[in-house]
Design goal:
Helix content is 48%, strand content 14%. By secondary structure, it is α/β, with parallel strands linked by helices. It has a seven-stranded mixed beta sheet, sandwiched between helices. Strands 1-3-2 form a three-stranded antiparallel beta sheet. The protein starts with 9 loop residues before the first helix and ends with a strand.
Length: 342
């Protein structure tokens, strides 16, 4: 029995775990990159079998699996074999609601470098990526890290898969003839809205390299192509499309000035009375506060951006010339801000 005077205090154990939590993130990333979730089928498998399938050193793989099972990613049977858990299944691409690419995006090589400079970002209130790499984050990503840019696009698509149906169910688009999805990635949300509203026409605006690879339903020959326009562009420069409804989903996460600029560009293009819908996960009242605050700090580091509070985002929308109306939850982590152009 451990003497009470020599036992490690609970707060010490907790803080040590927190200080070494990068090992957890790295373990989950390694599992995804090695293909462990796909290698492990429906039946239990030993480390020997898994090492052979993924081409890994068996002893090192046991150590990785020990780390993963500690966090509930895979489980050990007690007989030297391993089985899936709900969490490990989410690392498989063929699993509904998979977040494999969200995991990879959150642990891309550049993220590790940035976290070491968080104190600097907090002192200055500015992102550190440009000073480390000599150019802005997304310019670097597309020019020098195309694989990471591809991971980003897939991560955004996976995030949209979790929310697109809920958004389509929430939005009343009766009487609406046109919608513009601003910086909408590959267009999953737009495609979902077009499928639900047969009389609707949609425009997907995003950077040229993004709209070049849209959701197959929106692409030439796709089931929705006749009602979709793929428009290359940068919403921080111009939004050259008139629509009844403009959607900004999970993109107004730059610095406040850029957020207002993007919204003002929509106001400049829109007819009076057009609706501008902003969909974001907020740092106040979120049931996923650890995830949201982590994303908030990562945004500070890479683009000098932020996750918003309810009042803060509404104020920026008003500053851009919008009349903010109803604000309501879309699902457990997203909020919808309804607004109109004056």
């Amino acid at each position: 029995m451990t003497d009470a005077t020599t036992a490690v205090p609970g707060p010490v154990m907790k803080l040590r775990e927190l200080a070494h939590s990068a090992a957890c993130a790295a373990s989950v990333r390694a599992a995804a990159l090695l293909g462990l979730p796909e290698a492990l089928g429906e039946e239990p498998a030993t480390a020997t079998e898994l090492a052979r399938v993924v081409g890994a050193d068996e002893e090192a793989l046991v150590r990785l699996l020990r780390s993963l099972t500690t966090y509930g990613v895979f489980a050990e049977t007690g007989e030297g074999s391993y089985t899936h858990t709900a969490e490990s299944r989410l690392l498989r691409e063929d699993t509904p609601h998979s977040i494999k690419y969200n995991v990879l995006w959150a642990t891309e090589p550049w993220t590790w470098e940035l976290w070491a400079h968080l104190d600097e970002a907090v002192r200055t209130g500015k992102g550190v990526f440009p000073s480390l790499h000599g150019e802005e984050f997304f310019a670097y990503l597309h020019a020098r890290a195309p694989h990471s840019a591809e991971v980003f696009d897939k991560a955004m698509t996976q995030s949209s898969q979790l929310s697109a149906r809920a958004i389509a169910e929430q939005l009343d688009l009766s009487g609406v003839r046109s919608v513009a999805d601003i910086a909408g990635g590959q267009g999953l949300v737009l495609a979902t809205l077009l499928e639900k509203n047969p009389g609707l026409h949609g425009t997907l605006l995003d950077l040229p390299g993004v709209v070049a690879h849209p959701d197959e339903r929106l692409d030439e020959g796709g089931s929705l192509a006749s009602r979709a326009t793929l428009l290359p562009g940068d919403c921080l420069e111009e939004i050259p499309v008139q629509a009844d409804v403009y959607i900004f989903k999970n993109i107004l996460e730059w610095d406040d000035r850029s957020t207002v600029t993007a919204l003002r560009n929509a106001v400049a293009a829109a007819r009076p009375g057009a609706r501008v819908l902003v969909i974001e996960n907020l740092v106040d009242g979120s049931p996923e506060l650890k995830f949201t605050t982590a994303m908030d700090l990562l945004l500070l580091l890479n683009v000098g951006g932020k996750k918003h509070t309810r009042e803060g985002l509404a104020a920026l929308m008003e500053q851009a010339g919008l009349r903010v109306g109803d604000i309501r939850p879309v699902n457990s982590y997203l909020h919808l801000f309804e607004s109109t152009v004056a």
